Structures are given as C-alpha cells and as structure tokens.
Amino acid sequence: MNILEFSVLVWAGSFLAGFLGALTGLGGGVVIVPLLTSVFGVDIRYAIGASLVSVIATSCAAASTYIRQGYANLRLGMFLEVATTIGAIVGALLATMISIKLLTLVLAIVLLYSAYLAQQPRSEVLTDDAEEALTQQLQLHGTYPTPDGLMSYQAYSVPLGFGLMSIAGVLSGLLGIGSGALKVLAMDQVMRLPFKVSTTTSSFTIGVTAAVSAGVYLARGYIDPGLSMPVMLGVFPGAWLGAKALMGTKVSVLRVVFSVVLVVMSFKMVYNAFGEM
Q1: Within 10 Å of residue 125's Cβ, how many Cβ atoms?
Q2: pLDDT tens digit string along 190-224?
Q3: What's 189's DSSP letter?
C-alpha cells in the first residue's frame, strides 16, 4: 500500500468516524483509535495523537451548528469543561505509566454499561422536581427545540455529574477517545438532561478536552502530521453531515445508534488489546 492509498483509506474511515461521532456525541475518537491500530497497524500512541486531532475537528464542525440550532447548552458545557480539562491533563501525564490493556478492559466495561443505560426508557419531558440550589445559582437550565415547540429542562445531581466529567477527562487524556460516551452518560442518566441536549453538549465540550490532551501528546512527538492530516480532513465533513442529520433524527433512533457503536467498539478494543495474547 502506497502513501496515497493509505491516505485515501484513512480519510474514508475518518469520514465515517466523524459522522458517527457528531450524531452520537462520541466525538469520533472511539472509532479512530481501533481503526488506525487494528486495520492500519499504527502504533497506539500515534493513533491516540491523530484521534485527539480528529476529536477537535469533530467538535469544531458540529458545535457551531448545535449552538445555532439551540440544542447545545453553552453555559453547562463551559462549566463541565472545568472538570474535563483538569482530568485530561492528569490523564495525558499518566498515559505512559498505566497499562493500556488494563485500561482498555475497564473502558470496554464502561462502554457496555453505557450502551445498556442508553436503552433504558426515560421521559424527555421536564419533571416536577424542584430546582436544585446549585442548578439555580449556576443557571444550568434552558430550552431546546422539539416538533411541539421549545421544551424546558434543568440539570440535576450537578456534583455527581461534575465528578463523572473529571473521570471522562482522564480517559480522554489516556486513550485519546474524547470520552464522549461517559459524558453523554453523565448528562443523560445522572444529570437527567434530554438526550439530544446531552449528545450535542458533549460534542461541544470534547473539543476543549481533546485540545488539552493533544498539547501533551504534541510535546512528546506523538502527533504525526502525515497521519493527522487525512484523519482531520475526513472527520470534519463527516461531523458536519452528522450534525445536520441529528436535527431530524428521532431520539429512539439516536439511542440505538449510540448503543450499537458502543458495543461494537468495546469488543473491538478488547480484541485489539488481548487478541494476540
């Protein structure tokens, strides 16, 4: 395989990753890392570096659309980024000191559990529960468009959600996947936000998290321009199309796609880590 063929195939795979990443809020990195390591034989450290670049591209392509359409919550996203940024720095610094195989196994379990939780029915309608004090102080509420007009929502269990975001940041720094799965899980199941708000706000926040981690990987020489360029050029248009597709997609369909991608990627990551043992 020559360089041109390699670049075209990486571009095609990255396009699909960007589409799925924007549609589900995963960021595309969860597809990029297994794709580069298992299909193209790329060293996992360079795959993580390229993945972080793809996550930034996905976020840039999707976030502006989500904010303009009224889905992503800018205030909530910036608040949660405090936790994920700190976690991303810690994760990137610990990346060379922790067993990747052990971490991959733990992450696979988290992804499978996330897929299970995503299929549990939950009303998208605002409950009658009283607004929590921290939610009121930080104004972590808003509205988002639905076929029946604007619907109100508010965040619950903010401290627990903040803690899970810190863990998501650590995983992003360690594996370069953006940890959108854990972010969506935290906002959807713990903070009880509507699913479309969770996925779109996740897509908005993962770019900042990945940028922090990418700085550490860049300093270590693990971001190869020859690999990162086709990844970024593929992810960006894919994420743009994914953001457009999300607007008219039913929540039930989004949950199924979200779960299927998580299950496939969890098994793929475990196979990549332990298949040769």
Answers
A1: 11
A2: 888 888 888 888 877 877 777 877 887 788 888 88
A3: I
Rounded Cα distance, 174 and 77, in Å:
21
Distance in angstroms (rounded) separating the CA atoms of residues 180 and 200: 10
* CB half-sphere exposure, 95, CA atoms < 13 A: 26
Residues 254-265 have pLDDT tens digits of 778 777 877 877
CA distance 205 to 159: 18
Residue 225 makes CB contacts below 8 A (sequence gap 6+) with: none
Residue 196 and residue 198: Cα distance in Å, rounded?
5
With tokens 């733990």, the residue in question is 106
Give the list of residues 6+ apart from residue 261 with CB closer than 8 angstroms, or none: 20, 24, 26, 30, 31
User: What is the rounded CA–CA span in Å between residue 275 and residue 85?
Assistant: 33
> What type of residue is 135?
T
Q: Give the residue carrying structure tokens 């390591």.
A: 37
What sign does the CA torsion over 112, 91, 56, 154 have? Answer: positive
**Three-class DSSP category at 268:** helix
Interval 156-188: pLDDT, tens = 888 998 998 888 888 777 766 656 667 777 888
Residue with the bigger pLDDT between 192 and 22: it is 192
Q: What is the mean pLDDT of the chain?
A: 79
- In sequence order, what are the residues at sequence separation of 6 or more whose Cβ sits closer than 8 angstroms to the Cβ of residue 68? none
Alpha-carbon dihedral sign for residues 180, 183, 184, 185: positive
Residue 39 confidence (pLDDT):
78
Taking alpha carbons only, the member of 26, 5, 3, 84 closest to residue 235 is 26
**Type of residue found at 36:** L
Residue 232 contacts by C-beta under 8 Å, 6 or more apart in sequence?
14, 53, 54, 57
